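Bug #2210: token dump truncated for Endonuclease/exonuclease/phosphatase domain-containing protein?
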Amino acid sequence: MANKKNSKNNQNNCPTNNNINIIQCNLDRSYNSYQELLQYLEDNSCDIALISEPYVGKALIIKTPPGYDVHQFPADDEHPMKAAIIINKTLGYTLGISQFSSTNLATMLIKIGNRNIYISSVYVEPNEDKNNTILKLERFIDCTKDSHRIIGGNFNGWHQVWGSPKANKRGIDVMNLIINKELTVCNIGEAPTFENITHGKLRQSIIDRTIATPNLSNQIHQWKVSGDVCTTSQHNAISYILALDHKPSRNKSQTTYKYNTNDVYWDIFTTQLTKGLEAAMLTNTDDIAAFGQTALDEYIDKITKTIQTTCKRLFPTKRKFPTRAPFWNDKLEQLKSQLFKIHHNISTNKSRGMPYEELQKEQGEKAKEYSAAIRQESTAHFRNFCSFQGKENVFSLTNRLLKCAPPRKPPATLYIDGKYTNNAQDTAAAIIQKFFPDNDRSEDNPTQEKNQTRLMQHPRYSKRPTLFGG
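Reproduced locally. Full output below:
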């Protein structure tokens, strides 16, 4: 077991390319903290967020932000999610690992070059590990053996190794896990990750941690505690960079909705398109029936280019839907900065042995003002949005507000027929076999037997791709 507490080289020698930006944060189940996190994700081009105690609302799961996927593993309809991973859709192939996940432990697999990296988000309750999360984490480590792993989250444990003044039972349990499994604590310095004022006294502790396998810990750079990410949470966020040997693959947008056609004058578009087709001499359709394959392909290609040229000239392109809350403005940003400054002054006064009671009162008042401003701006934005809805799209709006369809889930392993699949290919094959099983040839009638024989004798049959490696 190693500790990166005094490893300065890991902070400075960070490659500029092939990086994955990661943040860890306990959101205290706060709506305001969730909105602050979304703002941070967009402003800092964050790739992965390891979330503890997220805001879930009545749905008990995290609402998926635009441009991101959420790996979360609800157990039922009664217990809210306590750990999840938010990942940028552009990052590349990721797979949720259901067999090593629960409401308190979210695990995913990301493929970088020839390496598989497991990333886990963890939350363990402070008084009692009700869901046996540490035991499940130990099982996950045993099953993945020599794999690359990063584990981040809120363990609610103290230990001197990661900067706490003393150790408690939870901290000792976590430390034993780290030592027995030969992991590395990546926490650096003694900055608190939890701060709360109770009975007029400032309580600080280090209960959020980043743990990694030795083969990956030296690639974690610029690890730091950041108190200005979610100022409405009692927990300070942790940010760091995972520097890789290979550049991570980035998915390109697959959407076909390139143009914004909400306010288009279609009469003008029709006129301009007709002129374009006439200029390219594409309006005479009498000879189409006589075209061969090559001539027909060329004709279609010319029509397509003419349509694209007209659209590009007349239609505005769709903008990327922002991840941050649409109601966020400079006023809220200023209040957030003021709240963080007061928080910083309280910590400074405490470390210097100076009084901070007046600052505590100011912090409480500013926090109430900040929360009230968020609610006010959110409500005003929604009312303004509703006022602009016309009759033609009122049903579309209603359907979006009241939709009860489950959110789209990113790929994950599946428990089926008494066992878990191992990858996306196994999952697809298992689903096909479950719902579209192989035919029982003994029940075929003569016509079916004849057709099946002809199919198997066809030259293309033996070359077709399969999900089973055949």
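Output looks complete on our side. The longest helix spans residues 357-387. Marking as cannot-reproduce; reopen if the truncation happens again.
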